[in-house]
Amino acid sequence: xxxxxxxxxxxxxxxxxxxxxxxxxxxxxxxxxxxxxxxxxxxxxxxxxxxxxxxxxxxxxxxxxxxxxxxxxxxxxxxxxxxxxxxxxxxxxxxxxxxxxxxxxxxxxxxxxxxxxxxxxxxxxxxxxxxxxxxxxxxxxxxxxxxxxxxxxxxxxxxxxxxxxxxxxxxxxxxxxxxxxxxxxxxxxxxxxxxxxxxxxxxxxx
Length: 206
Known about the structure:
By secondary structure, the chain is an alpha+beta fold. Helix content is 31%, strand content 18%. The protein contains five helices and seven strands, in the order H-E-E-E-E-E-H-H-E-E-H-H. It has helices at 38-54, 118-121, 125-134, 170-187, 190-204; strands spanning 64-65, 71-73, 76-82, 88-95, 104-111, 144-145, 153-160. The radius of gyration is 17 Å and the shape is globular. The termini are far apart.
């Protein structure tokens, strides 16, 4: 398994190399009105490609990629994985929510209907999974957990797109962030634990 590298310490006066012009960072202008800009999608695809090069999924990865091509829903664009029983879904990409919502790079685990996320929340497993994943992600960020009963989301890590704009190569840093979050979910056992619990919960509620 290739482990993504943590963010390097900041250096004063560091600048990008001339060849970075072809991979301009994602700027707020790209996200104006949250329209489906082809150029923005291509940038996200480059970040996702770099993410997959940075993190090689382990042989025992418990999910299958839904499609090799990134897909979009109303407010996001990225890659999706799902477990064999299609109870949980894993997302990695960009999400932008409603108007005025700061666009985010995000990795998250969510329930897939008809599986009900409260079946996992009742035991507090989503909180435990977030803590386990964060223990391997602390150099980057924290993992959040979702307690609202109406939300399908369970756990995830999110970073505002603007967070990386001052980096020498913002897109590469975003890719490392996403790769690091995936790596943390895997090596901490958090993803496996969520799937095992989901399978057991689905069996009990048949």
